Amino acid sequence: MWSKIERLDPRIIYGLLVLAILVPLMTPLGIPIEVMPMTMQGFKAIDSLKDGARVMLSHDYSFGTQPELEPIMKAFLKHLARKNAKVYAVASVVDGPMLAASTLKTYESLGKKYGTDFMNVGYFAGGEAGMAAMAKDFRSVFRTDFYGTSLDKIEMMKDVKDIRSFDLVISGNAGPVGGGSIDVWVRQAVVPYKTQFMVCVTAIMIPTEMPYVQAGQVVALVGGLRGGAEYESLIKSAGDATLAMGAQSSTHFMILALILLGNIAFWVNKRSKGV
Hints:
By secondary structure, the protein is α/β, with parallel strands linked by helices.
């Protein structure tokens, strides 16, 4: 038996890995998730909004990081829906408006209406200069929404003038070069206009962006799929992040079990040969 384990066909291992990934993606495992303070800060930032608050949701990431950031953005939207927030989706990268169209389906599924409760404003070009212009005068950058409708014809655009028109700005951020990176948001929106600003980032970005949180320039940071799963647990609505974390946990457990079995098999076979 132990000699067979030591010579286990790699195809069996790959098959087990596939099962370890697919089963949790279809059925939540219910693994308890400890909520970290950073994620709790994000929850409190949205939970403290007044009913009907205006929120800018900036899609500062591309399709390459969509699997990690979109589940967090969707969790934010579920929470914002409970606050009846008016959501204005913008983007500093060209992929952004299409990604916004995807995430905003979550808001629409919760009974919210386009043009009244949410809208996809579109892409603003120019990197830092474009953001500075948007912060100073929203209509100097945007004349129509992503679908070509004049902003003057959209109900929820009434009284929106500049970045101070928004109660909270949220950036789904993958650190785009020349776009809406976090340091650019801090320079052009937070420092000059005292904007309430929170972010969700890829897990690898957390250490580099923490100084902004510690300085109080970013009110909250939710990082990676783990952060998304934590947020889903706070709003009591399991979603893509929770499923992905279940798949990740089961895969890690299986790998550790195989390593343990392999070492036991090696030790037993070595003893049986008298070595």
